[in-house]
Write a structure and sequence with these properties.
This protein is α/β, with parallel strands linked by helices and 353 residues long. It folds into two domains: 131 residues, Up-down Bundle (Four Helix Bundle (Hemerythrin (Met), subunit A)), CATH 1.20.120; 208 residues, Rossmann fold (3-Layer(aba) Sandwich). Helices cover 39% and strands 16% of the residues. The chain contains eleven helices and 16 strands. The strands form four sheets. Strands 6-5-4-7-10-15-16 form a seven-stranded mixed β-sheet, sandwiched between helices. It has a four-stranded mixed β-sheet with strand order 11-8-9-14, covered by helices on one side. The protein is globular, with a radius of gyration of 20 Å. The two termini are 31 Å apart. The protein binds 5-S-methyl-1-O-phosphono-5-thio-D-ribulose. 5-S-methyl-1-O-phosphono-5-thio-D-ribulose binds next to helix 2 and strand 9. The site of 5-S-methyl-1-O-phosphono-5-thio-D-ribulose has 17 residues, from helix 2 and strand 9.
Length: 353
């Protein structure tokens, strides 16, 4: 079935600038913000104007290119400049592996160009960022095709945060699986957890409404109630970083959903591109978890709930141990338990990334 999906790409290169949908202004208005220098890209990542692991990875790749776009010196100095920008971009958010993967891929391309003319190196780096942009859409499409088998016709699917088009260049990972199932003619209904404190569930609802996909917004702690009533057939989430043993860091609350899903015998599916797999990290215990500012918890949509003197914690992610996961869907295929075997196997198949 051919379906027209409504959202434009989350980021695009236009007139020598990186344009990003400003996600902090959704759902009220869909506007693009322009970045001409890497500092602006870094700021957009930090403040979550652009968010979602694959989207921040591709944004960072263009941020790297922006730092050398007008550079005229020799290639050695160009490399130094890129190293500096890499430092800046790496310091924005610690958990999503795609950010580090994308920066390293740009640095590697620059290393490959040592000894070439500056103009040629710049061209190669631009092409690399563009390739990552294009690949991200292909990867999401492939994750969708590989994952749609987990969604039966008529299914009620529960998701958290936003692992949709907005979290990627386009199409989405977890929502990509849902979109693919719909393209196959299946009727799907989605429960979207609102995802306190940053409310990315609202972005999910916005996306699904744009595409006429039936969706019900719930607060995060309604998930267990719905499961106990038999109203959830499958949970599908994204991933920010996957360890070698299949433990998954994703939005805070994901672990709670996985425990609940296990207790109700509901399949728990993680959609993750290979660029989210950190093969050098043995278990989820080694994944750095971002701690964000307390104001995000103290307020809702700019309205302060209580005095700032109150103690607050605000971890942006949690780790779901692989024993709670039914499958990890990548663009290269599906990993099943035992994940300590299937994750490295899929990662290294055809020579890794
Ligand atoms: O803090 P965010 O909004 O960047 O967190 C995003 C998530 O947790 C997503 O589930 C994850 O990045 C996967 S997006 C395809």
């Amino acid at each position: 079935m051919s379906v027209k999906w409504e959202l434009p790409p989350t980021l695009k290169w236009e007139n020598d600038k990186l344009l990003l949908i400003d996600q902090t202004r959704l759902p009220e208005e869909l506007v693009f913000i322009e970045c001409s220098i890497p500092q602006e890209v870094a700021e957009c990542i930090k403040t979550m104007k652009v968010r979602g692991a694959p989207a921040i990875g591709v944004a960072a790749a263009f941020g790297m290119f922006l730092s050398i776009k007008d550079f005229e010196g020799d290639v050695d100095l160009l490399f130094e400049k890129l190293e500096e920008t890499a430092e800046l971009l790496r310091s924005t958010r610690p958990t999503a592996y795609n950010l580090f993967w994308a920066i390293e891929r740009m640095l590697q391309r620059a290393r490959d160009m040592q000894g070439e003319e500056t103009g040629k190196a710049k061209e190669a780096l631009f092409e690399e960022a563009m390739r990552m942009w294009e690949e991200d859409i292909e990867v999401n499409r492939a994750i969708g095709r590989n994952g749609s088998r987990f969604i039966k016709d008529g299914a009620n699917v529960l998701t958290i945060c936003n692992a949709g088009s907005l979290a990627t260049v386009w199409f989405g990972t977890a929502l990509g699986i849902i979109r693919s199932a719909i393209e196959e003619g299946k009727k799907i209904h989605v429960y979207a957890c609102e995802t306190r404190p940053r409310l990315q569930g609202i972005l999910t609802v916005f996306e699904l409404l744009e595409d006429n996909i039936p969706v019900t917004l719930i607060t995060d702690f309604m998930a267990g109630y719905l499961m106990s009533k038999g109203k959830v057939d499958v949970v599908v989430t994204g991933a920010d970083r996957v360890a070698r043993n299949g433990d998954v860091a994703n939005k805070i609350g994901t672990y709670t959903l996985a425990v609940l899903a296990k207790s109700h015998d509901i399949p728990f599916i993680v959609a993750a591109p290979l660029s989210s797999i950190d093969i050098n990290i043995a278990t989820g215990a080694d994944i750095p978890i971002e701690e964000r500012e307390k104001e995000e918890v103290l307020s809702i949509k700019g309205k302060r709930l209580i005095t700032e003197d109150v103690d607050v914690i605000n971890p942006a992610f949690d780790v779901t141990p692989s024993r709670l996961i039914t499958a990890i869907v990548t663009e290269r295929g599906v990993c099943s338990p035992p994940f300590e075997e299937s994750v490295p196997a899929i990662f290294h198949k055809q020579g890794g990334r």
